[in-house]
Each structure stands twice: as structure tokens, then as C-alpha cells.
Specification:
The complex is a heterodimer of chains A (224) and B (224).
Chain A lengths: L30 H15 L5 H14 L2 H13 L1 H9 L1 H6 L11 E5 L4 E6 L8 H4 L4 H4 L1 H9 L1 H7 L9 E6 L5 E5 L11 H5 L4 H5 L9 H4 L1
Parallel strand pairs in A: 1-4, 2-3
Chain B lengths: L27 H14 L6 H9 L3 H5 L3 H15 L5 H6 L19 H10 L19 E4 L18 E11 L2 H5 L7 E9 H5 L7 E8 L3 E3 L1
Antiparallel strand pairs in B: 1-2, 1-5, 2-3, 3-4
Classes of the chains: A mainly alpha (224), B alpha+beta (224).
Chain lengths: 224, 224
Amino acid sequence: MAGDHHDHAHDHDHDHGHDGQGHAHAAPPSPMAARVKAIEALAVAKGLVDPAALDLIVDTYESKVGPRNGARVVARAWTDPAYKARLLSDATAAIAEFGFTGRQGEDMVVLENTDQVHNMVVCTLCSCYPWTVLGLPPVWYKSAPYRSRAVLDPRGVLAEFGCRVGDDVEVRVWDSTAELRYLVLPQRPAGTEDWDEDQLAAIVTRDSMIGVTRLADQTPEMRS
Amino acid sequence: MNGAQDLGGMMGFGPIGIEVNEPVFHAPWEARALAVTLAIGFLGRWSIDEARHARESLPPPVYLTSSYYEIWLRGLEKLMVRHGLATVAEFETGVPDPAAPALPADLKPAPDAPQAAAILARGASARREGGGHPARFRAGDRVKVRDINTLAHTRAPRYVRGRVGTIERLHGDFVLPDAAAARRGEDPQPCYAVRFAARDLWGETAHPNDCVHADLWDDYLEPA
């Protein structure tokens, strides 16, 4: 993925549309593609951006920073009680131990899910999301259906993700209205007691770290 | 601002569009939109808060019918024109207009790729430890959210205004978005996670075991 989009001279002239890997003949460039192309060309011509910096930004979020980062943090917390304690008391510093620092992760908070408490995260006002550990947010996270209902009907939203939380469990919704960025520490699934950190990291999903799913609900097939 | 961005508690947007194996970008132009927006932001001409206000002050019909990166680009164009980086006509052609006003004299050079990588890895924390006035509230205090209605930027969502909640934790001192967006300095002040019982926000139809947290600044709150 990293290698196929960097021929700056012409590659992104083509908008392949929403279904699109490789149907360049199908549709004319969308209005948005043309608009971005004009802004980028203008910004380059005026010296406002360096094209190489643009490519670096795309590559960073397309292939380097993503939910595998968060999964490593979670797996460490599951296997190392001292790390978990640091993570819950100073999440920013504990996450920085992995080198996961920077934009949209400057001030982190980790929320622990338990048998009694289920945490889930939303940004009703825009799309605040912990980029350093989860990468860029999925479309649904930024969409009106999720942003409007996560605070009003969290259990209904969870059910849409296949996550049914018992009436005795407290659902805590965290609306990221400031510059704190939240990562949910999901519960470690039963049956993984003898797994090592790498095995555990492999089953931690993005959605479980947003708090819209529980790993315990996943079948062994879904985990593999 | 009571704009279309303030979605918490609205109804009628339909199911959440969960997408299996969602790509980071759905079209090449989205990647370029992200990169151009971030890279021009690196020039430091505006704050993240001013950028958010540029997006949220789009007319509601435009906001609600635009895709996420389309909202970003519309906001970016507004900011570039406001700060003398481009004219509306130049966005049409993608070519610098010799008749356009000169770029600001104090404009920094565009970061190159290594500099951009360093900026992303460093981030830009809004924390200003010790920069604010003493915190007026402590964990456990009952607070009421002021009924803030302004055309300017604020991060107090409508659904918590006038509602009573409990201080859950003090995050520390953070830049006040209302001030930064309006270019009135940073006015750093304590920011708190405030916990609201779901029934205190939504009435009896809410689940008795649910709560919603919002991160709110000292200025937004009064003793309850």
C-alpha cells in the first residue's frame, strides 16, 4: 500500500471514486478531486507546502500509524500489571514508552472496561480521535448517526455493533469535547491466559478500543 | 456556535454505516485533502480552534450534506482567504493570480518532509500547565453548565447546557477554544471531565445505569 501512490507528478490526478481501486476509466474526476487538485497545485506554486511533506503525511496515516499501535498498548497492559498501572495513571507517558507520540495524542486518557463498567468514546462536535494509537477515524465515527446517538442512546448504538451490555453494567460515554484523547482498555477475553503479548495484540480490534465492541463477543473465527 | 456540528442528541440520521475492512481513505483525493490541510496548518497562521470554527460555521444544509473531507476543504478555503494565503478566484484555477495580494511578509517557509515528520511526532499540546487561574471545582463538586449561546466558537455542546453534573476529574489547564478561535489569546484555564447521569440529560427514557462525560472548561461552569 505504501508504495503505490507516490508518483507525485500524476498519480493523484485520478479520482477512482468510492468503489475504486483501478477503475480509472469509469468516471470523470469528481468535483472534490478537482477542487483538491487545484488547492494543492496553488499551495505548491505559492510555496505554502512542500510536495514531499504532503506525501509523508499521507504515508504516515495510510501505512504507519494505526490501530496496531493501540493493540500493542492494550496487550502490554494485559500482561504487565506495572505497565497497566502507569497507563491508567498517566496514559500519555505510558503510551510514549512505545514511541507513540504526537498529533491528536498529545494528552491521552485510558478508560478501563470491567465486568461492571463499559466505556465508549465519541466526539459529538467534530471527530476528535486518538490518532497516535488508532490512526485516522473510520467514517462511521465521524458521521452524524454515531455522533448524534452515542450520547443519547448508547445501548442502541452498541447493539448495532453487536455489543449487548447487561442492565447491571454501567455504560459510560465519553464525549471528547476538549483536547483530551480517550483510548478504551478492553477486557481481556477468557481463554487467552497463556497467550503472549504478540498473540494478544493480534486480537485487539480498533472498535474494542473505541468501546463500541467487546472482544469477549467475538468468536474464535473472528479473532483469527 | 449552535451549528450543525453540534449533533449530540439529534435524531433521524438512521443506522450507523458500519463498513467492514474500511480503507483509511476512500479516494485518493481524501488523502490529499488531509495532507494539504495539515501541511498548510503547519504554517501556524491559525489555531485548531479557529479551524474548527471555520468548519462549524458552514451553513447547516451544507455541513450536513458534505462528506468529512469536503467540510475540511471548505474550511481550509475560508481560512486561506481570511489569512491572505489565496483568493477565491485562485481556487478556481489552481494557479497563482499575479493580481492577488502578496503573501504575508512574516510567513514561515513550508516544512520539508523531515520537518513535517517531526511536527507530527511532536504534536501540539493545548495543555498549559500552571497557566490558568486556580481551579474553582474539585472532584465530586456539583456544577451546572452555563447556557452559552454564541455565534462564536465554543465547545460546550447544547445537550449539556443548563444541566447539572458532577466533576469527575480535573485534567489540568488547557487553552480555552473560545478565546483561541476568536484570536483573543489562549486564556488557559482548568478543564474538567464532568459526569452527567443520562437521565439528567435525556429524562426517564434514558437507562438508569448510563452516564455521559463531557470535557468542559472552568468558564463554562457555575456551582450547582
